[in-house]
Design goal:
mainly alpha, about 80% helix, single chain
Length: about 260
């Protein structure tokens, strides 16, 4: 069953490429967590050009800059894991050069692959203010299907060297007839990632009594650092699942075309 075998095969790839991709995923997750860390440590009177807007809060331009800077790192992680999946030795100069050269179009492909999760994260606070968490989760579940159609555009762009628009179209073409497989793989992957974050929450619960009546800023910082570590481990695993799923969908599409021909 694909939604069970994909995480299993992805875990083998993740285990083999963890140490080779961990430094880049750690820097990437650190960039993504910069707004949260900034809001913890920044003072109201602080101001950093192009990244903050009054009272130490990140502006939309700051969020866009953080996400744009994380795109090449995501590309390096994908290229390194893809090289290991093909039995090749990862080469930093080649991967970094490719990531930087394709940076502008990579932003379009990455946004296309994760457009629905990004929009949900952006609009989530607006919906959660008037709705309970259970209702928000229930409304988000049907969006797994359109997410499954676009998400393999990321490995299609980096691994197959397609253009941004071509990668999105290719992802929809190979996922349309097997979308239920990708939905199952995404659900299984989210369950694994949820276990990671639950583990971080349990560790935090055990650490809190040690600090006693510690400052709330220190507790919040420790919480964010724990999530940062778990996120650095989760990114290579998610990319591994996408690479395995992309290859499986491509093989099944080729088989379908060969049979119909």
């Amino acid at each position: 069953i694909f939604f069970l075998s994909a995480p299993r095969l992805a875990f083998r790839l993740f285990r083999e490429g963890l140490m080779r991709s961990l430094p880049y995923s750690a820097v990437m997750i650190l960039l993504l967590y910069m707004p949260a860390l900034w809001n913890i440590f920044a003072e109201e009177s602080s101001f950093v050009t192009l990244t903050t807007l009054f009272r130490g809060n990140y502006s939309p331009l700051g969020y866009l800059a953080v996400m744009a800077l994380s795109v090449p790192l995501l590309g390096v992680v994908t290229l390194r894991l893809n090289a290991l999946a093909h039995g090749e030795q990862p080469r930093f100069r080649l991967e970094a050069g490719t990531a930087l050269l394709r940076w502008p179009t990579a932003c379009i492909a990455t946004f296309g692959a994760f457009v629905i999760p990004v929009v949900l994260l952006w609009l989530g606070p607006s919906f959660s203010n008037g709705l309970s968490t259970e209702v928000v989760v229930f409304l988000a579940v049907p969006l797994f299907w359109p997410t499954a159609l676009f998400v393999v555009a990321l490995p299609a762009f980096w691994c197959d060297r397609l253009g941004a628009i071509d990668a999105i179209v290719h992802a929809v073409a190979i996922s349309m007839r097997k979308s239920w497989r990708m939905v199952g793989a995404l659900l299984a992957t989210l369950c694994v990632v949820a276990v990671f974050y639950t583990l971080a929450a349990v560790i935090l619960a055990f650490l809190l009594p040690i600090f006693g009546r510690a400052d709330l800023i220190l507790i919040a910082a420790i919480e964010q650092l724990l999530y940062l570590v778990i996120g650095a481990l989760g990114i290579p695993f998610i990319i591994s699942v996408l690479i395995v799923a992309h290859r499986d969908l491509e093989l099944r599409e080729r088989e379908r075309v060969a049979v119909s021909a």
